[in-house]
Structure prediction request, 782 residues.
Amino acid sequence: MHQGLRLLIQLVLEFAPVVAELVQKRNQDNLSLNKYEPIEAIPELVKALNPSNKNSSYVEDFQQERISQQQLVAYNHEMRLRITAQERETALKLPEVNKILDSWPLRLYPSQILDSTHYGHTPLKIFIAPPQVHFDKFDDNKDDKTSQIELMLAEGIRDFLNKHYSLHSQVRPTELLAGAWDSKRFHSESSIKALFEMLKTEPSLILESENDGDYLNFRIAYWGLGQSNYYYKTIARLPYRQILEESAKRRALEWKKIRDELLALGEDLEEINHIGKENVVNLAILEKLEKWDEKGIDISKLSLQYQVNRQDFENLCQVLITYHCLVAGWVADAYHLVDHSVPPLLPELLPSLLSDTFDLQSLQVIASGYKQVYQALENERCYWIPELALQLAQSLSHLSDCSWANEQLDYSVNTWLQLRQISPQDSTNPLQAMQSAVSVKDEEYVKKLREYFVAVGDTQRIADVEEILNYVANLKHQVTLQHIVLSHTLTGHSKKVTSVAISPDSESLVSGCADKTIKVWNLKTGKLIRITEDLGEISSVAISPDGHFLAVGSCQHPRSNVKVWNLNSDKLLHTLLGHQKPVNCIAISPDGQIIASGSHKIKIWNLHKGDACGGLCQRICTLWHSSAVNAAAISPDGTILASGSSDNKIRLWNPRTGDPLRTLNGHLGGVKSVIISPDGEILVSGSTDKTIKIWHLATGKLLHSLTGHFEEVKSLAVSPDGEILFSASADKTIKIWHLQTGELLQSITEHSGAVNSIAISPNGQFLASASSDKTIKIWQIN
Prediction:
């Protein structure tokens, strides 16, 4: 068995139970987080988790549970970040005298490590404590072999991490701090303890190799985000002297072949031996040992000195690099899985890391180690388990023996069924049982099942999955058969209508126009209820989730502002000043607590319901963009603000702190519209490049790029069930798409001018569209 694989197996056997225990401990700790001040979204979250809501359909309960689990994980993660931020701030206040403590093992000050800004997931910090080997007993070379090994080891690990776990990765970031370890002074427990006390806020992995005679003791130390203690253990003893000698022996045997070929050509033996250098000595030792062994002498009792060269040291380095990469990959997988629900990557990389034939029992141990961590996550993130287990099965599907992959596959399918309250024991064929609970949203998962069965050549299960996909296609066809009927065309505006919004009770429609007016309409009858005039050119309107407030953005510079009205009484409550350029967009958070207004900057305001005093909208923070902000949307749990800009970028922020989270690049033109799906999983963006892009909000992964519009995409809307996407364009059309697949379902061409804004009613029965043709059209969805 490959030595690196043996090491990995040992790590999994030792470390997987530790990770599982850490998850369980963290779950217990999460129960006590209520001593900290709760974030604003928690009351709604508690209400969502209240088991008294028994009247809704099971499908709705399932989706709500999934959203609630996401919110709960986000809340717990934010609480841990808050706690670690406090601990980090405390650590930063400590004097730099910590550097002179006898047990401090790094060349960097604590503040240099702690005082850093990261976008997206917190990276796993990786330190290397390289071996201190006395190589002088192998040769007389005065080169600093320790320094050479340290450099080669760092370069090998750096290459591996940059390819697969880069610091700039949005999914699995790690930060390698090569050269930080003061290798000539420190190793072992005191150094790890000193590091943990100062860096406990930073998820960290220390890879330590310590000389022990002819062996290197390979140890790892690890702690994750918010952990109260660290893991530190020797996981392997590497026989480095044996590796060097084996390399020298191989070279000697290769030299023997070359020597014999040269002798056969009539070359002089003395000249040949001069060329052979240390290979001549090593070959002589091998031939002596072979002769003595034939005479019955126990050569294992003999200790002969082989001569090693740079090639042998490079072979040793390669073994060390493989060891370090395997361990770093597994621990990084475990960390990002536990803290960020990111599926593991290492199973896919094993074939490229290990050239030897795989030992199937060893891979079973590795797979079981991941499964052990998945099972520990079941309580807090059960809805992720089917996808995670299926991804692991796909990673193992290339093996000649599919039993280990099939075990993960069965775990995935059975968990999927259990989440939908279907017992796998109730059916002889779990795949057939899936059909009773599958929905259109499950299509991607079912397609991955098909990919797996195609890879392993299971024709029977391929047929079963095709039947499920046909059933899903029928469900999609039923969605397609829904048709949209024009109910009313509203006239009365004298210029282009720029924005529309529908009240939470699906009774009223508000329209904003370049003619400086706001009109309120009865959505069902199309009757004009009220008009407010002389407001400046209107760019955007938004209604609070409780239906009490109407926010209006003005793009008429220098009167650019945001006004907040009482929607029912038409009373002006507050004027928000501060933007120096036209206000292009506004958004109200789903909990009704904050307003985001976009100009060349984004300003976040605190909206206190029912308070009509001057402190109604206190500015929370200002977010900086390099170009005009055209669109903004806030996620259902209120933790993410997405903004689209003329610089072609989408930026994600924490709207309550102003912290940047991630930047999404992909559009070739300015982003004109962004919207987040009701379940908080999908971000959709529309651009002047005429495309619509669908992103996975948590990871920033681009899922689909939709084409079909002939001009810029100006506005987007998603149906309340998250199935259907509506897009409006300057090409005068409204297009209807299936959100999960990106399939174009229908095009509407009733407007005679650019369609600037669309809105769908919360009950999903009406769509409103506003156009440059000065009209608003109300569509009934049947």
